Amino acid sequence: MNRLNFFVNAARVCAIMLCVVVAAGCKPDKEDPKQTTSTTPNNPTNPNNPSNPAKSVSVGSQGGTLTTGSVTFTVTTANIANGQSGTVTWFTTSAGTTSGNAPTGVTSSVTSVSNNSATVTMTATAAAAVGSYYFKVTVDGVTSAVATLTVSAISYMYPGFNFTLSKGMYWKYKWTLLHNGVASEGYRTITLGDPVTVTPTNPSSSAVGELLAYKVIGTWEGPQEDIEWWWTLDERFIEIQYMAIKNGIIYGVELQTDGNILAIPFFSSQNGTGNGFVGFHSDLKKFPQTSSVKTVNNPFSVAYSGSGVEVYQKQYQKKNEMIGGEVYYGNEEYDYDTYEYYLPNIGFCGYYEDGSFTLHSSVFPYYATTTYRTENVWLVETNVK
After folding, report:
1. CA nearest 59: which of 164, 126, 143?
2. What is the pLDDT of residues 162-185, one digit of tens each?
3. What is the pLDDT of residues 192-221, one digit of tens each?
4. Whole-model pTM above 0.70?
5. CA distance 191 to 380
6. Cβ within 8 Å of residue 104, ≥6 positions away
């Protein structure tokens, strides 16, 4: 009986061991996907998943100094499809742990990804405070490290020109012209009318932002055609209708018939350059402008003399002449020295130009005829203080 029990028990142990071995060693011929869980999740940032390579977003440094206007940041992406759009999130510190609101006076935009690149544009108005601001860019669910936007204070080469315009302001100028010994003179008065708020669209001034521009009402005394205020001549392809001052820059503004808005800087106190109030000849070769602090000696009014800014430009060019279908090279020779003067808190004060035009003959006997021109435009009366 004992032997019988021994064999029964041994058979039971063998059966149990056999089941364990079979269970441990048996595998199905094919895995059933419904029963399989991957140990490598479908995570695009997981380097062990070659079918979904890691995505990344990084923001470059600020592209230039921002006072008002716009600057850009280049965003570099990896493994993010073209056309993906991005967003900007602001943070209170450089640690990038606490989100906040966009800075006052600052707006942002992000272009869609194209060939692993996008662009962040930051635009600041005069309401933006000087300082550093922190942000991250998120594209396709991937967020960059913290980037820094810096808004800087405007630096003026010549202080005193960021004054406020208002309706009713006027400037009266006396002009004289000596052209080949023939003299003429007159007056030109500029009065400011109703203001409009405009945003320039020409590329050179698109970063200016909004301008509060005042209607220019001009009156003449004397032969208008004798003096060339470049921005009132149709042949110069522009007719200034408004005037504005922003950040120490005096602008002329034209509302064009096609809906575009043109803003021309007459004079910038930030760097001492500009297109000129009376103006420099647009069709002549220009040498680099120079500017400096000068004692302005107004020949027509001691009251509007004193310490100011002189802007000088040399203009010289030989032009070709077409006669009878033939080109005669360098027949027309222009040589002008042009000066403009500005007084702080008043603006444009004076203009002086001395120059000559020489016409060289194209056939024998060869000769040259030169005409001389001296022009003065100076402030004699204003209610701007």
Report:
1. 143
2. 999 999 999 999 999 898 888 989
3. 999 999 988 876 666 677 899 999 988 888
4. no
5. 14
6. 127, 128, 129
Q: What number of other Cβ atoms are within 10 A of residue 150's Cβ?
A: 14
Give the whole-angstrom CA distance, residue 219 versus residue 287: 32
Residue 294's nearest CA partner among 248, 346, 344 is 344
* Cα 53 from Cα 80, distance rounded (Å): 10
Cα gap 161→176, rounded to integer Å: 27
Sheet of strand 170-179: strand arrangement:
261-268, 249-255, 242-246, 211-221, 182-198, 170-179, 368-382, 347-360, 326-343, 306-323, 290-296
Report the pLDDT value the prediction gives residue 42, as an integer from 0 to 100.
38
Express each pLDDT in 216-237 by its tens digit: 988 888 775 555 554 443 333 3
- Domains of the chain with CATH codes: 56-151 (2.60.40.10), 170-382 (no CATH)
382 closest CA partner among 279, 309, 303: 303
- Distance, CA of 282 to CA of 237 (rounded, Å): 10
Kindly state the tokens that stand for 115. Answer: 């060939």
